[in-house]
């Protein structure tokens, strides 16, 4: 495998993590926009029982790559809403970014229990497992996600990364084409198109 392709795989894995964090923030960010992080921190310091403020602050910490603070805030939010899958997934993301992968995986599984079929939770779990070297377990999670939700383009994207990393280039391209088919307007689709263009050079006859 060439150095350029190794870089492609590394970038794809990193991008997938970034896409999920950004996607979670965009998808669930409340309509009210807080002017600054400092204002929100003061509001939470005065009253940490208001879920919306905790949620906004946790998302802002993730956006600013401050996972330790995000973990603390999402932990508080999860106590207020222990069965909210969005909170659990974001808590898992923060834990993963803080190098607490075991706790992150437990949290993703909790999200999957309270919201069966949640493709974001299962894709995050698979990504976390793969990063730990648990490749087969990761692939099993992704295949199960696709079986239950054929339109889960995040699963196709991550499975494509796994195939590419294993040198199974044609299957990687096939998975990334499914991303474009099932989520044509998603950031994952844009990344998949770029990855396909690079990878096709390695499978030319």
TrEMBL record:
**Pfam families named among the record's database cross-references:** TPR_16
Signal peptide annotation = 1-27
Which segments does the entry list as coiled coil? none
Question: What keywords appear on the UniProt entry?
Answer: Signal, TPR repeat
Write down the PROSITE patterns for this protein, in alphabetical order. Answer: TPR
TPR repeat residue intervals: 51-84, 85-118, 153-186
Keyword Signal attributed: yes
What's the superkingdom here?
Bacteria
Q: Return the protein name.
A: Tetratricopeptide repeat protein
């Amino acid at each position: 495998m060439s150095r350029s392709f190794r870089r492609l795989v590394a970038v794809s894995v990193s991008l997938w993590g970034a896409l999920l964090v950004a996607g979670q923030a965009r998808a669930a960010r409340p309509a009210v926009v807080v002017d600054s992080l400092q204002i929100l921190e003061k509001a939470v310091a005065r009253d940490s029982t208001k879920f919306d403020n905790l949620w906004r602050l946790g998302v802002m910490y993730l956006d600013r790559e401050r996972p330790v603070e995000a973990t603390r805030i999402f932990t508080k939010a999860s106590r207020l809403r222990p069965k909210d899958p969005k909170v659990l997934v974001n808590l898992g993301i923060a834990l993963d970014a803080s190098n607490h992968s075991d706790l992150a995986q437990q949290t993703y599984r909790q999200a999957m229990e309270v919201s069966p079929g949640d493709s974001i939770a299962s894709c995050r779990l698979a990504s976390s497992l793969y990063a730990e070297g648990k490749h087969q377990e990761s692939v099993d999670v992704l295949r199960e996600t696709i079986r239950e939700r054929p339109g889960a383009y995040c699963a196709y994207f991550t499975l494509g990364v796994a195939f590419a990393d294993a040198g199974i280039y044609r299957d990687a391209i096939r998975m990334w084409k499914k991303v474009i088919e099932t989520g044509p307007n998603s950031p994952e689709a844009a990344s998949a198109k770029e990855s396909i263009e690079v990878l096709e050079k390695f499978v030319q006859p």
